[in-house]
Amino acid sequence: MDGMLLPIIVGIIGILVGFIIAKTIEKSKGTKLLNDTKKEASTIIKEAKIDAESIKKDKILQAKEKFIELKSEHEKVILSREKKISDVEKRIRDRESKVASEVDKNKRLNQSLEAKNKDYDFKLDFLEKKEGELDKMHKRHVDMLEQISGLSADEAKKELVSSLKDEAKTEAMAFIQTAVEEAKLTAEQEARKVVLGTIQRVGVEQAVENCVSVFNLESDDVKGRIIGREGRNIRAIEAATGVEIIVDDTPDAIILSCFDPIRREIARLSLHKLVTDGRIHPARIEEVVGKTEKQITQEIIEVGKRTVIDLGIHGLHPELIKAVGRMKYRSSYGQNLLQHSREVANLCGIMASEMGLNAKVAKRAGLLHDIGKVPNEESELPHALLGMQWAEKYGEKPDVCNAIGAHHDEIEMKSLISPIVQVCDAISGARPGARRQVLDSYIQRLKDLEDIAFGFSGVQKAYAIQAGRELRVMVESTKVNDTKASELSFSISQKIQNDMTYPGQVKVTVIRETRAVNVAK
């Protein structure tokens, strides 16, 4: 038993001794570690103190620099404010000095004005006295003149005014005539040059059309075939074409009568085809007339296209091209409408070029200005307004539409092309032989010209010559002197211009003739 406990006790004692030794070793290590830690902590604290001191110094330096910078900026602001204040003070001083000088100047002006007012009052009193004396002298002179002349002042004044009025009227008429002549020489010189140059550069042949066409035959035997049995062929032709066929005793010819040139041309071509073919009967007549109508329609389109190409006009609507082609078969006062429109287009192009305007637009307006004369349907509108509506409908430019509508003054002109078209239309229509006039209206116009001349006092004879383009007036030399002859010419021309409508111009020539007759015995 004892022998077993001993080793146990020894083992326990050994464990205790080992534990004590381990604790002792551990304690010595902890003490050493603590000492090392304390040393390291003191080292870190020292380094931290050193870093803190350096950071503190840096911050103090930065703060000082910032303070210096802010101080310099503040000083700059103060300096600029002081400069502004000094400038303001300088301006105020300048203004004060100006105001003071103005005040001094005003004082001097007031003093001079007071002196002038005194002088003016003195002169005014002196003038009033003189005026009173002049009035008294004027009354004495008037009384003396009334006694000498035997007329009162009012009567003398009326006579003087009357004589001055006549003299002023004569001088005014002479001045007006001189001014008009000067204006014509200056203002119309270039216009005349442009118009004459335009007319001279365009030459056309004038062809007068009637309402009848003559169809020539190879022999009179063909007349019977055209008439047909009991006149059925001629009735069929008249019914199909709407043209009256006159068969009379004229050898080798029949007459086609119709106001519409297109229908008349259809009848002429149809008759030519029927006579050439030799088969003339109602059914054949209707067939040939139908084909001829289609041919004429196609020809109208071709004529329109050819005209547009010849004039160099592009982009025209097909319906307007048809209207241009139909002009070939229309006439105005005997003047072929297509020839007239082509001439007006060429004149417009030349005149627009001379004036520095767009010649293509002017040509376009000149060609289309009378398209209202070839309507498909009857209309109550004037041809100028109808043509303008067509042009607007088919997309023409406003300048072209206005020129079409305004060429007879139905509407106001809004572009320079409009007066050019109006002038060129008048030039084309006023060419000698271009248009026919009804004889009665022509004779009446000449009589009206002569009657206007006879309406003035002192006129002895008056003759309208050169187809009404000149009026020669003979006056009595005892009643009309040279000055009044010039006034009379001007007055008659103004009367004609205001009261009459006529193509072109009317020249008024007043002739005053003085004759001295003696007889040798």
What is this structure's SSE topology?
Layout: H1 2-149, H2 153-201, E1 212-216, H3 221-227, H4 232-241, E2 244-246, E3 253-257, H5 261-277, H6 282-311, H7 318-326, E4 331-332, E5 335-336, H8 337-354, H9 359-368, H10 383-393, H11 398-406, H12 417-429, H13 439-454, E6 459-465, E7 470-475, H14 482-499, E8 507-512
Parallel strand pairs: 7-8
Antiparallel strand pairs: 1-3, 2-3, 4-5, 6-7
Helix content: over 70%
Termini separation (Å)? 226 Å
Order of helices and strands: HHEHHEEHHHEEHHHHHHEEHE
Number of helices: 14
Question: Hey, roughly how much beta strand do the residues contain?
Answer: 5-15%
Number of strands: 8
What structural class do helix, strand and pairing data support? mainly alpha
Radius of gyration: 59 Å
- What is the general shape? flat
The average pLDDT is 80
Sheet with the most strands, sense and barrel status: 3 strands, antiparallel
Verbal overview:
By secondary structure, the protein is mainly α. The strands form three sheets. Strands 1-3-2 form a three-stranded antiparallel beta sheet, with helices on one face. The protein is built from 14 helices and eight strands. The relative contact order is 0.04. α2 packs across α14 (482-499).
